[in-house]
């Protein structure tokens, strides 16, 4: 198999421009009764190829932050840029993975992944080749023709990841993509995500409820807190890019960060 | 390359689970006739019992022939006057099918407009509701005044009868799309037309098709009601005339043909369902939706 297009550094932007730059961004929702600040003065700079985990209790604005970066939600104040250009409306250069696989029931695995190419009007031949690589990468070769209802939850979510990666996005946004999976599948998917991230070199913003998952996957962990939703702290994870499930979790650095994150979340008494 | 080999081991358990889910419900290759028999023998058996009862009641003379003609008389009538019945059946079928097709196109168009614009929905919906509440048979004479004694009023009544279930089911279908999938389409920079063609419309098909089944049977009623009110052709006219002559055998024959039209239309849509939405849970006979529930 050729790993050519999967190798890191396929994006044309220079490494000096931040992949994502959020400066003093706030999001408020107003209803007739009151105004809710979903995100308050968030600051975050993500370098090219970085894996960022975002953790925090419900209502801390982590999904809002992701929606803002994707262009699905607008922000009230501040600045948000992707690769140096400000966001106005949905971005073409991102891949989005939702909590649920959000697959089209009537399309098989390959057709679901290729939806990305059809919607964007990409070159079909190149997209098909890329699709082959992705399907092989996540080990779904034997299930190309299967419909979503014939797949397990983990397999469905892998299809969603392939779909998000098909157009070689500069940034992959994942909103609790593993939240609905059972613990065992989730562990396997963690290993797989780490591998996919290393293979593609894509910048990833990964929202999760799980502290262990956040630390295991990330270069940096963003800890958020609710009412109003804000970034409390950003913790560096000083571990090599390649993580090993058992070994990484036994590493003192892993435990240092995980404990720090738990302290921060627990201290506020709002952890779920 | 080492990464790839590791992957194949991590995913092997998952893969075998999926294969199992696929293998177990796979039906053995079965001929179409056998499958049809398997699904319809109960209904056929019931029909046979009903036919025997019908025959028995009339043969024993428990009911007067002018009230209930015998099966022999009814079918004899059908055979004897085949060209007559064929001519009128053709007319009614034509009105029904044309009315039904117009209703499908109009209904789906209105449903699309209502999904597109909240203002339009708030404007149109009450009107449609009022139009639905008016008994069609009561306004049918009006259409005769407006459109004459030809096929116009019959087709119009058929359209009106079939329209409502199409709009309602079309609207419900278009609304049933997972909002996350619509968000996903936005992140793909998809145009509204592409989103409709590739996501919203296919997703709406299961509901639209069940609305079409209801609409098809109503279209038959609409056409016949139109024929009752004015005109000199079609099965509705045949029934009216047979009624006037106390010719219950002809009346029953016409009734049988009308039911047959409705059933054939219904069956065609059922067939369309098998072809268009084999992926939908209602079409799956293997209970494999359990896998989805697990996820």
Primary descriptors:
heterodimer, A: 272 residues, alpha/beta, Rossmann fold, 2 domains, 6-stranded mixed sheet, 4-stranded antiparallel sheet, 8 helices, 10 strands, 35% helix, 24% strand, globular, disordered N terminus, disordered C terminus, B: 295 residues, mainly alpha, MetI-like fold, 13 helices, flat, ABC_transporter-like_ATP-bd (chain A), ATP binding (chain A), ATP-binding (chain A)
Please identify the structural class of chain B as seen in this structure: mainly alpha
Helix and strand content put the structural class of chain A at: alpha/beta
Helix content range of the residues of chain A, please?
25-40%
Spatial order of the strands forming the largest sheet of chain A: 6-7-8-3-9-10
For the record, the CATH architecture of the largest domain in chain A stands as 3-Layer(aba) Sandwich
The level 1 CATH classification of the domain at 85-175 and 208-274 in chain B is Mainly Alpha
Poorly predicted runs of 5 or more residues of chain A: 1-12, 267-272
CATH fold-type name of the domain at 85-175 and 208-274 in chain B: MetI-like fold
Helix share of residues of chain B? over 70%
Computed CA radius of gyration of chain A, to the nearest angstrom = 18 Å
Q: Largest protein interface?
A: A-B, 51 and 44 residues
pLDDT averaged residue by residue of chain B: 82
Query: Which blocks of ≥5 consecutive residues of chain B have pLDDT under 50?
Result: 1-27, 286-295
What percentage of the residues of chain B does DSSP assign to strands (E)?
Answer: under 5%
Any guess at the CATH architecture of the domain at 85-175 and 208-274 in chain B? Orthogonal Bundle
Largest sheet of chain A: 6 strands, mixed
How many domain modules of chain A?
Answer: 2
The proportion of strand residues of chain A reads 15-25%
Q: Mind telling me the CATH superfamily name of the largest domain in chain A?
A: P-loop containing nucleotide triphosphate hydrolases
General shape of chain B: flat
What is the third-level CATH name, the topology of the largest domain in chain A? Rossmann fold
Keywords (chain A): ATP-binding, Nucleotide-binding, Transport
Protein name (chain A): ABC transporter ATP-binding protein
GO molecular function, one term (chain A): ATP binding
InterPro entries (chain A): AAA+_ATPase, ABC_transporter-like_ATP-bd, ABC_transporter-like_CS, ABC_transporter_ATP-bind, P-loop_NTPase
């Amino acid at each position: 198999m050729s790993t050519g297009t999967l190798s890191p550094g396929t994006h044309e932007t220079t490494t000096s421009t931040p992949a994502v730059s959020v400066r003093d961004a706030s999001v408020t929702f107003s209803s007739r009764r009151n105004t809710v600040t979903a995100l308050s003065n968030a600051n975050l700079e993500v370098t090219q190829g970085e894996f960022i985990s975002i953790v925090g209790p419900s209502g801390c604005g982590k999904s809002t932050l992701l929606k803002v970066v994707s262009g699905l939600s607008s922000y009230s104040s501040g600045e948000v840029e992707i690769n140096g250009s400000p966001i106005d409306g949905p971005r073409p250069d991102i891949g989005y993975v939702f909590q649920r696989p959000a697959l089209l029931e009537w399309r098989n695995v390959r057709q679901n992944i290729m939806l990305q190419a059809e919607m964007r009007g990409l070159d079909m031949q190149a997209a098909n080749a890329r699709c082959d690589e992705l399907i092989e990468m996540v080990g779904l070769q034997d299930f190309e023709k299967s419909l979503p209802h014939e797949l397990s939850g983990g397999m469905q979510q892998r299809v969603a990841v392939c779909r998000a990666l098909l157009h070689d996005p500069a940034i992959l946004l994942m909103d609790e993509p593993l939240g609905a999976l059972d613990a065992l599948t989730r562990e396997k998917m963690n290993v797989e995500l780490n591998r996919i991230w290393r293979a593609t070199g894509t910048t990833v913003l990964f929202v999760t409820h799980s502290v262990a998952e956040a630390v295991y996957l990330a270069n940096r962990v963003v800890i958020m807190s609710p009412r109003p939703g804000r970034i409390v702290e950003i913790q560096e994870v000083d571990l090599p890019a390649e993580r090993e499930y058992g070994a990484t979790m036994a590493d003192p650095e892993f435990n240092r960060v995980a404990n720090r994150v738990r302290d921060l979340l627990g201290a506020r008494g709002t952890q779920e | 390359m080492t990464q790839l080999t590791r992957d194949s081991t991590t995913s092997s358990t998952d893969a075998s689970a999926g294969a199992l889910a696929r293998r177990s419900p796979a039906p053995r290759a079965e001929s179409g006739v056998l499958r049809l028999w398997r699904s319809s023998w109960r209904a056929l058996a019931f029909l046979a019992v009903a036919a025997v009862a019908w025959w028995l009641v009339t043969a024993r003379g428990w009911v007067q022939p002018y009230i209930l003609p015998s099966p022999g008389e009814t079918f004899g009538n059908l055979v004897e006057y085949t060209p007559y019945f064929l001519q009128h059946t053709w007319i009614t079928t034509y009105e029904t099918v044309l009315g039904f097709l117009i209703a499908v196109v109009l209904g789906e168009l209105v449903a699309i407009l209502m999904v597109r614009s909240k203002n339009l929905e708030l404007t149109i919906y009450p009107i449609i509701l009022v139009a639905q509440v008016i008994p069609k048979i009561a306004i049918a004479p009006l259409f005769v005044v407006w459109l004459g004694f030809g096929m116009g009023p019959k087709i119009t009544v058929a359209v009106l009868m079939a329209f409502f279930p199409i709009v309602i089911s079309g609207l419900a279908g278009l609304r049933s799309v997972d909002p996350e999938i619509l968000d996903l389409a936005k992140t793909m920079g998809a145009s509204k037309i592409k989103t409709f063609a590739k996501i919203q419309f296919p997703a709406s098909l299961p509901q639209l098709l069940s609305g079409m089944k209801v609409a098809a049977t109503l279209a038959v009623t609409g056409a016949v009601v139109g024929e009752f009110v004015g005109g000199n052709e079609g099965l509705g006219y045949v029934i009216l005339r047979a009624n006037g002559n106390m010719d219950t055998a002809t009346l029953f024959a016409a009734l049988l043909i009308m039911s047959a039209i409705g059933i054939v239309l219904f069956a065609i849509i059922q067939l369309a369902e098998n072809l268009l939405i084999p992926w939908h849970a209602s079409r799956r006979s293997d209970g494999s939706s359990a896998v989805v529930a697990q996820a």
